[in-house]
Amino acid sequence: MRHSPRLTIRALRAAALAVLLLVVPVQAQAPKDIVDVAVGAGSFKTLVAAVQAAGLVEVLKRPGPLTVLAPTDDAFAKIPKADLDALMKDKAKLSAVLQYHVLTGNVAAADLKMMKDFGTAQGQRIQISSAGGSLKINNATVVKPDVPASNGVIHVIDTVLLPK
């Protein structure tokens, strides 16, 4: 039984392609850092704008690990517009507010539930309580815990935390 040269060449090409697919690993998409996860979610436009205005993008892109208590756009909407506009223009105050939302380390919601308070990157401590499956940070409720990022974890909250 004779094989045509075309069939043999096709078979060789197919075999070579199969070997390449097995030998050369497919590059996995790199996991997104905290900033990229927030940008990609689409519900943190105000938070991302605040992080940019405060000059904290590179801080939140570092290897970490970090835990970010991330207020949604709806959370920022609870702040009167004039107050939010003033905050966005005051880089020092904005930076302090944002750093109050950052914890050092990868702190899972389950770990937070076992604590009464935790120190923030801003220097003050947040108060933590849990009851009936709900996790509260000061007066904010965690609405989506444990959103993974390459450099830590995000807990989505429904209220902007303001340091004292």
Annotation keywords:
164 residues; alpha+beta; FAS1 domain; 7-stranded mixed β-sheet; 24% strand
Give the rounded overall mean pLDDT.
86
Largest sheet: 7 strands, mixed
The figure for the number of domains is 1
Structural class: alpha+beta
Helix content: 40-55%
Characterization of the model:
This protein is an alpha+beta fold. The chain has one domain: FAS1 domain. It has 8 helices and 7 strands; from the N terminus they run ααααβαααβαβββββ. Strands 2-1-7-6-5-4-3 form a 7-stranded mixed β-sheet. Helix 3 packs across helix 7. The longest helix is centred in the N-terminal third of the chain and has 19 residues. The radius of gyration is 23 Å and the shape is globular. About 9% of the residues have low confidence.
Helices and strands, with pairings:
Elements: H1 5-23, H2 34-41, H3 45-54, H4 57-61, E1 66-71, H5 73-77, H6 81-89, H7 91-99, E2 102-104, H8 109-113, E3 117-119, E4 125-131, E5 134-137, E6 140-149, E7 152-157
Parallel strand pairs: 1-7
Antiparallel strand pairs: 1-2, 3-4, 4-5, 5-6, 6-7
Write a short abstract of this structure.
The chain is built from eight helices and seven strands; from the N terminus they run H-H-H-H-E-H-H-H-E-H-E-E-E-E-E.
